[in-house]
Structures are given as structure tokens and as C-alpha cells.
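step=encode ok
step=design start
structure_in=
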């Protein structure tokens, strides 16, 4: 009996992981959208782009425009907010391990000119 349950669990576990990874990818896409709105609000208030941040850290000054629950890391994913003020571009870099299920799910999200990805990073163009 326990052998049968073990075999069923072995079959069901990968099937359950996919929706969990897709939900994680959906959270990343929602966070990118929220960062776009926060960046635009920051620019409207001060006229400039916020400064870039380190991996896993919220950009200084942008906190007032973000939801209190916004984090820059979860599970095996970490964010970095990157700006290039000289050309008016803000990006969200999403880093993950090559075998990340969330990273794999993100690679199916395509918006030409707005999203690019490599096996270990997805880049969202927030403002250009």
C-alpha cells in the first residue's frame, strides 16, 4: 500500500510544481508592473529616475511609492532595480538559478521590446 502511495506521489508532485512555478512567475510580472507604476509616480514627483539598487534591495527613495509588502526576493528569485538616467531607462532584473522553475515559467512570458531573458535572468524594461 505504501509503495503504491509513494508511486502516486512521485507522479503527482511534478504536476503540482508547474502551477506553483507559474504562480511565482505571475507574482514577478505583477511586481514588475507595480515597479513601473512606482517609478512613473517617482518621476512625476521629482522629475528624475530613482537610483539603481543592489540585488535583493529596494531602491532608495522609491519605497514611498511601493506597497509595504513589496519584497525584492522570494523563493529562489531575487530582483535588482537598474536605471540608466542618461538615456531615461529603468529596468527590473530578475535573477534565478538555471534550474529555477519560476525562471523557466518566466521564459514563456514574452513582450517584445519590454522583456528579455537568459537562462539565469529575465529583464523587464519598466520605463524608456
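sequence_out=
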Amino acid at each position: 500500500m505504501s509503495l503504491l502511495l509513494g508511486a502516486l506521489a512521485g507522479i503527482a508532485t511534478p504536476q503540482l510544481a508547474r502551477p506553483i512555478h507559474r504562480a511565482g512567475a505571475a507574482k514577478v510580472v505583477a511586481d514588475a508592473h507595480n515597479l513601473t507604476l512606482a517609478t512613473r509616480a517617482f518621476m512625476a514627483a521629482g522629475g528624475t529616475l530613482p537610483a539603481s539598487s543592489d540585488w535583493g534591495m529596494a531602491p532608495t527613495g522609491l519605497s514611498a511609492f511601493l506597497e509595504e509588502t513589496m519584497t525584492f526576493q522570494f523563493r529562489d528569485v531575487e530582483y535588482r532595480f537598474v536605471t540608466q538616467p542618461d538615456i531615461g531607462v529603468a529596468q527590473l532584473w530578475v535573477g534565478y538559478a538555471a534550474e529555477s522553475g519560476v525562471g523557466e515559467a518566466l521564459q514563456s512570458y514574452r513582450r517584445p521590446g519590454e522583456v528579455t531573458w537568459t537562462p539565469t535572468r529575465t529583464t523587464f524594461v519598466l520605463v524608456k
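step=design ok
step=annotate ok -> Residues 51 and 83 are 6 Å apart (CA to CA).
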